[in-house]
Write a structure and sequence with these properties.
single chain; 251 residues; alpha/beta; 9-stranded mixed β-sheet; 9 helices; 27% strand; globular; disordered N terminus
Length: 251
């Protein structure tokens, strides 16, 4: 059974404190299959309108702002949007970028408005994405696979996807996209070794991402953490895995 996490509360707290920015971590993933926002750019023309669902602190779409005519980032967390607005101001003039507090289940945009919709590690409504995409538009999503950080979940005896068959979420999303009317639905996956340079880097991840429910609130967590670091440390750092899948679909 999936561990229950109060995602809304978790993301609100993380959003106000950190946005969704993990750039301070020293972590190396070996031979990842793709860079998600490079894939988004590959499918985006300079005349396109782009919607980014679950934009977090907005770092990703700010980094590709010159690639589209208009980029709109939305997030369910008000704290995330406040962080994104701050990052927008700090980045200097980007008149083609907007950040809006919005529920992905109820997109407040006209039909056929966007040419590209992206969603990285965020939930989405297939029917709503289909509605706001223009004919011929493309949807790209990257999500965390169930077996991501599997050795961490096993060490703590709990995890956001512990006990769920690998591929469950990917198959569900493919079915939902097909039902919504999408075609040319393509999926790919990778599962690679990942090393965190120091215990502090791994600790930052676990306190800023919902990998282990209520991490740090259970008395034995720190002891388990120390034991995990000891057992999974090698010359490259602390070893775990990064597992992702990506789906693209055309309207």
């Amino acid at each position: 059974m999936k561990n229950k996490i109060n995602y809304a509360d978790f993301y609100e707290r993380v959003g106000r404190k950190n946005g969704w920015n993990f750039s301070s971590m020293n972590v190396v993933s070996e031979k990842v299959g793709w860079n998600f926002y490079e894939e988004v750019v590959r499918h985006t023309r300079s005349s396109d309108l782009l919607l980014d669902i679950g934009t977090g602190g907005g770092e990703a779409i700010l980094s590709i702002a010159k690639e589209a005519l208009l980029l709109v980032g939305i997030d369910l967390s008000q704290g995330m949007i406040e962080t994104a607005q701050h990052n927008l101001q700090a980045a200097g003039p980007h008149p083609n970028v907007r950040f809006v507090h919005m529920d992905a289940e109820k997109l407040a945009f006209p039909q056929n408005f966007f040419n590209v919709v992206s969603s990285r590690h965020a939930g989405f409504s297939a029917s709503e994405v289909f509605r706001v995409l223009a004919e011929g538009g493309i949807f790209l999503t990257q999500q965390v696979s169930e077996h991501d950080k599997s050795n961490i979940a096993e060490a703590f005896g709990r995890g956001q996807s512990l006990g769920i068959r690998s591929g469950t979420l990917m198959e569900r999303y493919k079915h939902e996209l097909q039902k919504a009317g999408f075609h040319d639905i393509q999926a790919r996956e990778y599962n690679v070794v990942e090393h965190y340079a120091t215990p502090e880097d791994l600790m930052f991840l676990l306190t800023h991402a919902p990998i282990i429910p209520d991490f740090g609130e259970i008395e034995a967590d720190f002891e388990r953490f120390q034991q995990f670091v000891k057992e999974h440390h090698d010359e490259k750092g602390i070893r775990t895995n990064s597992a992702r899948f990506m789906i693209t679909a055309r309207k």
